[in-house]
Amino acid sequence: MMKRNYIVRILSLLCLLTVRAAVANPDLPENDTITRWSLGNFPKQAQQTFEQLSVSGYYRFVTNYRHFAKDQNGNVLAYPHLQNTPNNIFVGDDSQIPQLSMNISGSLGKRTSFGTDLFMWTPMTGQGEIENVKGLNLGISLYGSYSSDIGDFNVRTGGINWYALTPFTFQTNKGYDRYSIFERNPWDPNTRFIDSRYATFYNVGAINQDERWGQQAFQGIILEGNRLPNDFSGVIMYGKTQLNGGLSPVPNTSFGGKIKKSFQQDYISLNTFNNTSYSDSTERYRAGFNVATVEFKTDIGEVTLKGEVGVGRTFDFNRFNDWGELVSLKASTRIADRVPTELHVFRLSPDAVNNSAAFINTARDLTNYDTYSPGTQPVLPAVASAMVSNGQLVNNRTGFELNTQVDVGPFKTSIGYHLSTELENLSPAITYSHPVNSLVLAHFWRWAFPNDVGPYGNLSKIYRSVYETLNITAVDSISRLPKSRKSFNSLELNMKYNTRLLDRELYVFYLGQYSSSQFFVSPFTVLSEKALLRTYYHQLESYWTISKSVVWCNYIGYERIIANYDTETDVVTGRPKNQTGWSIATGFDIKMSRNAGLYLRQRWMDYKDSSFRNDRYKGYESTLEIKIFF
Amino acid sequence: MNLKKIIFLFLTCCFSLATAIAQQPTTRKVVDFTGGARSVVTNNSLLVKDTVPDTTTVGKNTGGYALVDLGVNIRPNQTTELMGMFRIRSGYGGFWGAGVTFDVRQLWLKGIIGDIVRYQVGDLNLKQTPFTLYNHRADRFDSLPDVFSLQSDIVDYERFYTGNTWRQQGINVDFGLTFAKGIQGIDFTGYVTRMNATDFLSVPDRLFAGFSAIVVQQEGIKLGYNQSSIFDVKGTSAESPSFSNNVQSLTAYFHRTVQNLDLTLDGEAGKSSYADSRFADRDPLEDYFLYGKLNGLWKNKGIGFNVGYINVGPDFRSMGAQTKEIDYSASPEYFNRYTNGQILRPLDLTDLIGNSNLYRTSISDKLMDIQPAINNVLPYGIATFNRLGAFAGFNYIKVKGLRLDVTQYQLREIRGQGTLALKSFSRTDINARFQIGEVLEWKKKLCVHGGVFLQSTDRKGDLAVEDVSLKTTRLQGGVEVEISKGLDLLGGVVQLNSSGSDFIADRDDYTEIDFFERVDYDLLQQTFAGGLRFRFEKNIYICALYQSSRYNDRTKSMPGFTINQFALIYNMTF
């Protein structure tokens, strides 16, 4: 009865209104204030709005079709876990790059803003909505800036924020721009001219990289101070990195910073980066690392000296290990010179560990109770002694590199020489990569980043690549360590040639890498069986601009990897690794419209280890990519 | 939230943006974006003070999040407005999309029908009168120093506490009538909201509806009739339990200025009924209330006063006004358990000030638990049942920058609880805020704040077991110093001391007492906080905050503990 009365009263009043009522407030919502209403729905005023909101991003559709061939006996030429699926269709990119990515940024004031990214991805499995994926790739960041008489201050919180301090504290390796550009990276942009990617690589030595190049992902707070008194500047950062983080409430915190004093073009800075976590479940024992360095740059005549010198250490179960040195000194002539040359001397102690730095840890395991929490990557153990490209530093290593570029007519040749040796004899294994078919090989394991997989359990997948571990058998029977420290040699050659063919631009690039590792120091790459491991990589590629909208791309790759009898041998053949890989590929870059590109690639691959029978694959992979920026 | 909704929202957003751009030549914007963003990182540690050292509890943790509230405000025409706001939240430490959640934070439509009726459908923030629908914020420490309000403001934002409103979902209608002579006008407001949906078996749809009609006789005289009802909709479930809670009230407001004295008389009187068919053997609970308050203010002297009378019957039930904002049965955000026995950790001041998970947005249809150590005098605000008495207050705002508020409540029970003896209640609130910077005409801000809040509950009976005596003292102080333009140094302390004993009523689902549980208190809680805050804009700030909170139960029924917290907060919310 009560409810009925109530409804009747409301309806009666509504009826009355149609004949008697006055205007309540027609100018909604700009003048959304009813002063005499002290009850009802709130707020009475219109909400404040953003000063600005923008949406940008890209759509990237990529799909692969892979097929493995069969031998004369009808056996599929593929790794065992792919034997039953010689054909594979995959829609999308399992390297964490979605189909649709939208960057949303807004500002609530003149000095503050926020940004986030939203991705959507449909794997096109036929299941429709239930399989669609959405999420954030980089998360949510908040920015603020403030200018005052004593300096300009910027703050970033949330994350992921891409940031870099110095190579030994917080940075990723930038390298010497010697790589194949036949395969497109997910972050590669569409360029105004269809061949700009190749022209830039020829002219400048690097393709257009996105903002993350050389930077590390960081979550937390970053406070920058610039234009401080007496030409000082500085950074403080506190939060989590992708290898020392995760959603777990267990404290796993990284913090660092930099104080920099500038002298016009020269500078000197004090830098540090540290991580603290716990090595037990009750958080009684701390684990982590500390790094502190000095970085400088100065010009002396025609020579630029740049370097970073510091120390690093690890600690575990509240026990602090010894400090180890970190030295990287570069002397270079100016890039404008006819033959710009850089000498790089380095020495990285095995005691210095920082898995957020530009060098790889091959020496000390970092124990961490919370390693396997969701959202982090459990890659804290030290990797084996690595054969890496020039410029990529690893700890437990000392040596030098010489890099130069010689330009003769249309030929531009970049040459790199590397000689290094281990400081301590710590690892009975060597790791190396397979660059000729690296992306295709990474596709053998989708979504995950497994370790110790493959037909012989010695392959590990990392981001868009795979590395292989070679075990050394010439070891001490008790310590299980090699009889001697290992040395590493490498020679890299990147030749670039530009001409016009049928009045169209043609770019030809050759990349050769010849490396070895052995128990003795050698001035050059060892080409004999004295080397524990020899790797020879050849990649030749060409890009011909056949019209304003089309580039024809071609690629030939060849790799030879040979180990000696001081390394593991196959139980059947009794021989060490003897690997040969071929890859022939072609493709087209097609500009569909402004900001929209179609990219086709067809790669035939043939790989075989003549000693390890199951290490064999042969087939092809076709790739179609559509990329549109908005 | 499913993907379809998110995509729809985003497509709407993008489409609307395009529409907005296309319609730029028009004078009114069709689409606006609103919302905010926040980033919080905390580092917490727990120290347990137990007879046996606690070697089991994990004593440290980190937490935090970053979130964006993105609201699309769409105006398809001059009298219609649509708001959809979604929240994207990323847990601290989640890389590459881990720990991300998507939610719809609010969705509503409002507009005007025929230039007459203002309506809103969807999410509502409703307030009626203090005895019908009202969020009394009874246990919210609203007068805390600024260093603590950084956190409590976030709780308010998270729980949509805009003043004394409750977040509801339904429809609200406002309209007004004006008259040429006799009376100035009549303002109407009405609402229907849904408290819960049916499960088609034993739980029927439950609605909450109400309306107010305010007659404005002339400027300074208002008379109103208010009604609120919670009721079940018959036939919406297989079984047909029937619950109802109805409140009717009359409100009056008179304002007059006599020379320099502004006088305001404000009052409300009414009755309630509460019935539940599941308790067929019980009579409906019916009771009345009466509340009046006289305010005076000498504007030229800055002196004000108020006196009032409260009489709320023991069976007065108004769930819209008696729902507590804090749920004492909720868990702390971190360190839920402690000691080697891993017992549940009691809530401390840090939790109450800054943990939004403890606070609710919806109306409860049952009486919620109270916490006598926090508020035993008016645990449901002035709508607390079984209270009779008066209060008087004094305000001083004469000196520029100084504000002093003093209020004294003297109350007693109307009906004895488990005995014929009645409890008497006394509460003293003294709060002062002194803007020293303004007084000294400094360009920078310097503000000190202090407060004393005393509560006592006493009962003397014929038998010693009837005796009750509980005293709670809250002392607080704070300072805010602007050390550079926009950069503030903040500090503050809160101490809560509760000692004595009382009986807590254990109530059944019919809100009637089943049993009494005696509780002894000798509890000292202290929270110290200090921090640096930089204000970019109004409501946009970043701050580093350190807080230490101690919980010391001297009865030893709960082991003591200390929680230290370091927090970095970047807040961008309107």
How would you summarize what this structure contains?
The complex is a heterodimer of chains A (630) and B (574). By secondary structure, chain A is mainly β.
Topology:
The complex is a heterodimer of chains A (630) and B (574).
Chain A: H1 2-20, E1 40-41, E2 52-68, E3 87-91, E4 100-107, E5 112-121, E6 133-135, E7 140-148, E8 151-163, H2 196-203, E9 216-228, E10 232-241, E11 253-263, E12 266-278, E13 286-300, E14 303-316, E15 319-320, E16 324-333, E17 341-348, E18 359-360, E19 385-386, E20 393-394, E21 397-408, E22 411-422, E23 429-433, H3 438-442, E24 459-462, E25 465-471, E26 487-501, E27 504-518, E28 533-547, E29 550-563, E30 578-593, E31 596-609, E32 616-629
Parallel strand pairs in A: 18-20, 19-23
Antiparallel strand pairs in A: 2-3, 2-4, 2-32, 4-5, 5-6, 5-7, 7-8, 8-9, 9-10, 10-11, 11-12, 12-13, 13-14, 14-15, 14-16, 16-17, 17-21, 21-22, 22-26, 23-25, 24-25, 26-27, 27-28, 28-29, 29-30, 30-31, 31-32
Chain B: H1 3-22, E1 31-49, E2 60-77, E3 80-91, E4 100-113, E5 117-127, H2 146-158, E6 166-178, E7 185-196, E8 206-218, E9 221-232, E10 243-258, E11 261-276, E12 285-298, E13 303-312, H3 319-322, E14 337-338, E15 343-344, H4 349-354, E16 379-382, E17 387-396, E18 402-412, E19 424-435, H5 436-439, E20 446-459, E21 468-484, E22 487-507, E23 513-537, E24 540-553, E25 560-573
